[in-house]
Amino acid sequence: MDFRRVKDYFSWLYYQYQIISCCAVLEPWERSMFNTILLTIFAMVVYTAYVFIPIHIRLAWEFFSKMCGYHSSISN
Q1: Coiled-coil region(s) at which residues (predicted)?
Q2: Which among 5, 46, 65, 76 counts the fewest CB atoms within 10 Å?
Q3: Is-contact 65 72, C-beta < 8 A?
């Protein structure tokens, strides 16, 4: 893929984002505020998933391994 096609694809994705989220009808300051809030929420969701999902997976692994009678060295 050449650079021109990648650039066109990303501009098409951005256009789709604007149409779906109705950002095309907002004023520039409203659009920047909306994008900032959306980016902040997305960053918090990613951070929360990064921090808490491994903990829950480990706890579920320990719970089910104790139920099945399998004891591993990582649960100590």
Answers
A1: none
A2: 76
A3: yes
